[in-house]
Specification:
192 residues, mainly beta, 1 helix
């Protein structure tokens, strides 16, 4: 559900999820800039998820929610440099680039291997070859886009918090930046 209230920004950070103590439930304190006409919104799981003994976090980015024209639109999404060695983008799960109409219905779904993906998406790798980010060069963007992917946590949750950054630039917009954190909690639900 969607609940709106004012927040004390001296104790709460925008675009951050706070666990409620209930299973898989968190409160996302959205930046006021994430209105229906916003250019960039970012989110992630409130906590790291376990799948087949490995730890993962799912992330999402919404670009150009209103479908305005953005010239030379470029999205750069990177893992936080301070914990990039602790996580990497899971290419087995893949990155999905979803072009949507004004109602949010997906009209094109691009993944690795498609011509569009190959021509517009580049990976950023660290010195060991792990994928720690990606760049999407949209050219002139006139529709709403969502990007979904997940990261694999490589340090068994020792870092505690895993951050992720999205940057949007374009010739006719002010650059936009969003950072979101995902927390690791142990099997008992305790935040590490």
């Amino acid at each position: 559900f969607d609940y709106r209230t004012s927040v004390d920004t001296t104790t709460v950070q925008y675009d951050t999820s706070y666990p409620t103590g209930l299973s898989d439930t968190a409160i996302l304190v959205a930046n006021p800039g994430t209105t229906p006409d916003s250019l960039l919104t970012k989110w992630g799981n409130s906590t790291v998820q376990v799948e087949n003994g490995s730890l993962y976090t799912q992330w999402g980015v919404r670009v150009n929610r209103s479908g305005a024209t953005i010239e030379n639109a470029v999205l750069v999404d990177t893992l936080n440099p301070e914990d990039s060695s602790a996580q990497e983008i899971d290419l087995n799960w893949g990155i999905r680039v979803l072009f949507q109409d004004a109602s949010g219905t997906t009209v094109n779904d691009y993944r690795a291997g498609s011509d569009w993906f190959t021509n517009h998406v580049t990976y950023q790798k660290d010195d060991s070859g792990k994928v720690i980010g990606f760049t999407i060069d949209f050219g002139t963007l006139t529709s709403r886009v969502e990007v979904h992917y997940r990261t694999k946590v490589n340090d068994n949750g020792k870092s505690g918090t895993y951050a992720n950054n999205a940057y949007l630039t374009g010739n006719n917009i002010d650059s936009q930046t969003r950072t979101v954190n995902s927390l690791y909690s142990d099997a008992n639900g305790n935040i590490e």
